[in-house]
Amino acid sequence: MKKQNPPSTKAHVVRGTLYLLGLLSAFVIQLALGQQNATDSAIDPTKSSFAVGHATSGSPEAQPSPVAAATAVVLWDQYNNAGTAVTLSATFTDAPAMNSDLVDDFVVQGNPWLVRWIDVDGTYFNGPGPANSFSVFFYSDNGGFPGTLLYESTNIVQWTQHDSTFTINLPFCCWPTLYPGKYWIEIQANMTAMCCGEWGWTDRTVTELDPAVWRNPSGFFGACTSWSRRAATCGIDPSAPDQVYAILGENIPTATPTTTPTATTTSTLTPTPTLTPTPTATPFPPSPTPTPRLGPTPRLRPTPPPRP
């Protein structure tokens, strides 16, 4: 998945990296205006507007180990077709005018995503690094440009570097859930320019969806104070209009809906009518049995004496 480019061939810088330190207002630091020797300069003076030069190399300080892979899978893969330059995407504690944002788009299809970390290809230039921390932002889509900020995790210290691959682990407490739709992602280093230089995100020669978008809100670099096409509008590395990165996490299973049977309407029972008892016919009183009348008691006649 990861195609590496030698750090010495990957640096994309915006011209005019002259900045004024807040505490030493009289001391102007010129990072790359041709006044450094050729081996240290990150600016190619023959290029107009934005220039491609050479990155300085350096070993990053030890960082906490990334979260164990567990069930994580690659959810979005643009970790290929790397160009030979990087584009500035960083904030600076000592030179906020150079703060720059760089975003690229992706699409969530099917099940929602639980995002756990980002693999991003990049390098330091104008200094050895390391970054103080990283920030990750997710935006909604607004007609092919970043829209509403949906998620932000700033000052992430849980990150590692292997060659030009930076693995940015999102805080365990706050892994974002992204539902189907189009989004924009920003990966941004938080730097101290005077000691450590700048950080850039590797440009990609193949465009996926819409080309990458960049801005420098202060106007310090003289172009693109609002979201604009990095390559076509801002003129930064036109031959490689996208960015190299991959999103890793988990697919969230969608519960299969259980078919709920349509409830059968229970008929209202008609109350059983109370039966009216059939009146029992009252029999007429039995006719009195006629009492037989006794005739006159016959009188006994005396038996006559026998005749002599």
How would you summarize this macromolecular structure in one to three sentences?
The chain is mainly β and 308 residues long. It is 1% helix and 36% strand. A hairpin with a 7-residue loop joins strand 2 and strand 3 (28-30).
Topology (SSEs and partners):
Layout: E1 12-14, E2 18-20, E3 28-30, E4 50-52, E5 73-77, E6 82-88, E7 90-92, E8 101-108, E9 113-125, E10 133-141, E11 146-156, E12 159-162, E13 165-169, E14 177-178, E15 181-191, H1 193-196, E16 198-204, E17 213-215, E18 228-229, E19 242-243, E20 245-251
What would your notes on this structure say?
There is one protein chain. This protein is mainly beta. The protein contains one helix and 20 strands. The longest helix is centred in the middle third of the chain and has 4 residues, at 193-196.
Please give a handful of descriptors for the protein shown.
single chain, 308 residues, mainly beta, seven-stranded mixed β-sheet, 1 helix, 20 strands, 1% helix, globular, disordered N terminus
- Percent strand equals 35-45%
* Helix proportion range: under 10%
Biggest β-sheet, characterized? 9 strands, antiparallel
Class inferred from helices and paired strands:
mainly beta
Element string (H = helix, E = strand)? EEEEEEEEEEEEEEEHEEEEE
Unreliable spans are 2-68, 280-285, 294-301
Annotation field: number of helices:
1
Shape from CA axes? Answer: globular
- On the 0-100 scale, what is the average pLDDT? 75
First-last Cα distance: 171 Å
Cα-based radius of gyration, to the nearest Å: 47 Å
